[in-house]
Amino acid sequence: MANGIVNFAGAFTPKVAESFHKESVTDSARGTGFSFSGVRSVKVMSVDTVPLNDYQRSGTNRYGTPPELGDTVQELVMGDDKAFTFTIDKGNQADQLNLKGATKAMRRQIEQVVVPYVDKYRLGHWALQAGYVHAAERAPDKDSIVADIFEAGCQMDNDLVPAAGRTLFIPNSYYKMLLLSPDFLGVDKLGEKHLTKGEMGEIDGMSVKRVPDSYFPSGVYYLIKHKDATVDPMKLNEANIHQDPPGISGNLLEGRFYHDAFVLGAKAKGVYVSVKAELVAAMPKIMEVNGNVTLSSDTAGAVIRYTTDGSDPRYSGSAKVYAGAFAKPAGQLVRAVARKDGEYASPVSEMQF
Asked: What is the mean predicted confidence (pLDDT) over 198-224?
């Protein structure tokens, strides 16, 4: 202790981390593949692949004409820097200079305010950045929800997402439908056991996390993510207790945490979200007119982002916002995506020129 300040950033952080991990619904599935230690941004480079050719047993290009191998650069910039502060007056709690009460108050603040905020933030950002957005024409019910989830799993299988490491995040209202579904009881022999205990461990090989309805963005039915498809840095920078600062008879508590949530472009298909169809933008149309390229979307007010190097415009640092017709990029692949503010991205359209 120095100058009447107890800095809990070192001593208290392990307790906070333990509490956070125990209470959070998203922490066990967060991605930790890149280190943000000492920095606020990380650039991730994903090297492209090339198609296979038929080997020719004669000639000068027996392996085919070699194209220049491209790459996609995605910059992840941490942007959510949050803080809190409150006081505990000596007259309200006299307990060993208020330190015991202050410690409990700090942990309670983490568990009841910080953890729910971070969970909501992650779920919202994972959904908005998802690599596969399923535009659901109807809400799931107990007769359809199992088939919907199995269809989602099949889509991820087709996108070559590893089966191990997937987590299904589902709001409580739909979780109950899942437990009551006759299909679930039919496919899972442990269904009756889970139903009796009011819990469920997995479905279609995926871990299941039941989430308060209020944690989910409006219009989202459920979300599936693979652990390695995201990067979700979290830092507790400060957790301080100031004893008898000027103007206060008691303790002043201050805390700060710095975090964010990113979907990796190269592994984006590892995040699948099912949302109301009306919240998903229409796929952009790509057209060539008199040597120029025009882009359009049937969703009024949607912003179109595009690339001319074949990279994914949802994640690529080379993506541009469409502002009008541009010259046809001969020999290049144009890809485009539409998104309306606060809603979900369209499928990516593409055209080879």
From this structure: 86
Report which residue type is found at 313: P
Chain centroid to CA 324: how far? 31
Neighbours of 125 (CB within 10 A): 19
pLDDT range class, residue 3, cuts 50, 70, 90: very low
Select from 310, 349, 337 the least CA-distant residue to 128.
Answer: 337
Pairing, β 132-136 against β 271-276:
parallel
Written in H, E and C, the secondary structure of 102-117 is HHHHHHHHHHHHHHHH
Q: Is the pLDDT of residue 174 over 60?
A: yes
50 CB burial (10 A radius; 0-12, 13-18, 19+): exposed
Residue 52 to residue 218: CA distance in whole angstroms: 43
Give the C-alpha distances (Å, rounded to integers) separating 138 from 132, 221, 276, 298, 347. 17, 10, 7, 21, 19
Helix (H) or strand (E) holding 96: none
CA distance 184 to 206: 13
CB 169 within 8 A of CB 26: yes
- Of the CA atoms within 13 Å of residue 262, those in its CB half-sphere come to 28
Q: How many helices (H) and strands (E) does the chain have?
A: 8, 21
Higher-confidence residue of 130 and 38: namely 130
Q: Which of 16-25, 176-185, 227-236, 299-308 has the lowest mean pLDDT?
A: 16-25
Specify the residue for token string 């979200």.
273
Nearest C-alpha neighbor of 327 from the set 303, 298, 353 = 353
How many Cα atoms are found within 13 Å in the side-chain-facing hemisphere of 164?
0
Q: Which pLDDT score is estimated for 97?
A: 47
Q: How far apart are CA 301 and CA 324, in angstroms?
A: 15
Checking if the pLDDT of 183 tops 70, the result is yes
Burial of 271 (0-12, 13-18, 19+ CB in 10 A): buried
| Mean pLDDT in residue range 228-255 | 83
- Specify whether the CB–CB gap between 72 and 312 falls below 8 A: yes
